[in-house]
Amino acid sequence: MTMQTVRHPLLSPAPGTQRELVSLHYGPEARSSGGQKAYIQASLHADELPGMLVAHHLRRLLDELDAAGQISGEIVLVPMANPIGLSQFVMHGHQGRFELTTGENFNRHYPDQIANVAQAVESELGLDAAANVAVLRRALKSAVLSSPVETELQSQRRTLLGLSCDADIVLDLHCDAQALMHLYTETPCWPDCEPLARFLRSRVALLAQDSGDNPFDEACSQVWWKWDRHFNAQGLRFPIPQACLSVTVELRGAVDVTHELAAADAQHIVDFLRWRGLIAGDKPALPDPVGDARPLAGSMPIKAPVAGVLTFLKEVGAEVQAGEVLAQVIDPVTAEVTELKSPVEGLFFARDFVRFASAGMRIAKVAGRDALRTGKLLGA
């Protein structure tokens, strides 16, 4: 079966202007064939470029597998998920995280169709879990694609969700500033995510259940546990499994854009898809874990209380103790040195690449083992 390229025009923001998303479709359509569907997108934050290079290498691998007739499931690849953000430059600086018109994060505020779908399909649900999944997926996709949009940003969100909301596996490829390979996923997804963490050599997976502001990955995964909770609260014992593994994959840091890393990451994704049964051939051995899972509420941001030149005393990957100095902020006028310490024992897994800190700026993150934070758990 030959790969199909589909172009998705976005709502035009102005006369004479038109952007589009492009999706690449491999293998048999899952909802017709009864197979699995995987959806993979790169650089929803458009200035996070490692994902685009991974997608480039992944496309080459999938083309080869397609030509060999080895793709047995449906695989949808969006090699560049944010044409709006990709075109946003201010004084030669790329602004790919927030839409300049609204100031909204491209990876937040995905629309919620949970209650609408639950009401629409309740009479069709029963005691067959697989049948319930099929009914809910079909209704969710219809609700997403028929939802009205008023702006280009809303049409981009609708297009991305329309492509992904009925998938068994969703991988959203991002990166941090300077970081180890790490993952974000919802707690109910962790049993299915743990093998992915092994294949990707992830040092830490950060788990939460509804972290706030409905980011893309959670918009795909949380429908299932929320439907299960919704119907159980009404005494309706419809079996509804966690039918979507959705993961934000943080491909290290923003400058980790090398063929060596990207080719390896793409191969690891293919190995996982083969392990899950979407690619024919011998099932690869499950690698040994190199990390673990910790609560997102235990990922502690390190903030600079004052402005100044920022210099780090620890590299990412260090295991640190509570109270250990990670960085210093130096006032170039007064020569005052402010030490920034880890609030917890944990893994120093990410830090900023900016070296002048403003007061209140988040400059690093340490993943502890205890859930200490509440409320919205993601940064801006």
TrEMBL record:
Signal peptide: none annotated. The keyword Metal-binding applies. Gene3D superfamilies: Zn peptidases. Coiled coil: none annotated. The keyword Zinc applies. Its cofactor is Zn(2+). Keywords: Hydrolase, Metal-binding, Zinc. It comes from the Bacteria. Residues 35-273 form the Succinylglutamate desuccinylase/Aspartoacylase catalytic domain. Pfam families: AstE_AspA_cat. This is Deacylase. It comes from Pelomonas aquatica. The lineage of its organism: Bacteria, Pseudomonadati, Pseudomonadota, Betaproteobacteria, Burkholderiales.
